[in-house]
Amino acid sequence: MEITFFGAAGEVGRSCIMIKGNGTKILLDAGVKLGEQTEYPQLPQGEIKEIDGIVISHAHLDHSGYLPHLYSAGYHGKTYAMKPTLELMNVLISDYMRLSSPKDVTKEGLAGLAKNSVAVEFKKEFKIKGLSVTLIPAGHILGSALIRVSDGHEAVLYTGDINLSKTKLLNGADLRGLNAKTLIMESTYGAEGDEFRPERDNIHDFISSVKESIKEGGKVVVPSFAVGRAQEVLFILDDYMNSGAVPKVPIYVDGMITKAMRIHRHNVIYCRKELQSMILMSDYDPFKSENFVQVEKKSMRNTIVSKDESSIIVTTSGMITGGPIMFYLKKMAGNPLNKLILVGYQAQGTLGRALQEGAKKVKLDGSDLNIQMSVELYHMSAHADRKQLESIPGKISGLSNIFIVHGEKSKSESLKKYFESKYNTVVPRLGEKFTI
Predict the structure, then answer these.
(1) For residue range 136-169, what is the model confidence (pLDDT) as tens digits?
(2) What pLDDT band is residue 36 in, cutting at 50, 70 and 90?
(3) What residues does each domain of the chain span?
(4) Which residues pair with residue 424 across a beta bridge?
(5) How far apart are CA 43 and CA 430, in angstroms?
(6) DSSP annotation string for 242-287
(7) φ, ψ for residue 219 (rounded to 5)?
(8) CATH classification of 2-193+382-435, choosing from 3.40.50.300, 2.60.120.200, 3.60.10.10, 3.60.15.10?
(9) What's the predicted TM-score (pTM) here?
(10) Fold of 199-377
């Protein structure tokens, strides 16, 4: 088989990997890289019409956002993913189209994507011409999958984004009984010091910080990915508010999060059994908590920020690259009683990263914005940390090769050093091709 890396090589974003074997070419993921400028996979135009199928690991735009561009550029084949992935992808891509209006995406391309999306199931092998493909639970977000590709002789296993720990929503990745000669693995948190604090400690400090702001009369805004992270944050806040540990204040839910919550509720069969049982066996449905107030109109936002009351706002986007968070930041940044709490990865070049690193003045809509509100980070990652990443290859029998992707170059290189004495380990460059 042949593997070519058209994105996520020495970077986080625009995941796009081509596997070629048995006269078949498939893409694993087709993402974009959002930042000051949107970057696309470096996939040559001539290759697009030769693709026999696309398999998407999960719905996040850095793994799925390039699909409308591909269909607009002449791809007519199928896109395969889990049912919840297809539903979440539809919401995220619609929002991406609305905010970015990419010039090369056509109505016909969007229609082609909708018409050619095929839902598949975990652990049920399917064929794309001469290659066999299986999706395996990855524990990252709803519907997220590792992708195993086999030509009948050898197999490649691609982690996509992976999490080995269970969360309020999902069990960790299912790595039982896996075998492959080649592993393509993410390295978002691949540096030697990238070890997460125990979840209990992290949540304790997050809740203490929220309580402190409410007590002082401030407002808390939590920028979050609409899919996965937002649900985790909302469930944590809901639990502590229901127990009385957090004072009852409105929890405003803004952006695409409400739509994503609906999709999670409809696909609860893919969530942890405990969550399914809670909904089936009791009258309580955490997806529809009375503590959550949906922001249904833009005009509500002015009321929320001007009201003389404490509140919590959970909104998109998670890296502060667009969406309602831009409005809230502009209106709330000047009040030292207010607080911005970051809960996930902030990519280089994003406003979220600048604030995480302590910036006290940022550009917003072409003007300088002074940051007087507190900025804190409590990591609620849906990714594996360094220790978990180190453990993954040992769970896969027959492994010889590791390609490390989806990480800042220094993190990928750090992880490479750890594995290279035991496996043939490579951090590929953009456009680089390998025969295995």
Answers:
(1) 999 999 999 999 999 999 999 999 999 999 998 9
(2) confident
(3) 2-193+382-435, 199-377
(4) 401
(5) 10
(6) HTTSS----EEE-TTHHHHHHHHHHTGGGS-HHHHHHHHHSS--GG
(7) -115, 145
(8) 3.60.15.10
(9) 0.91
(10) Rossmann fold (3.40.50)
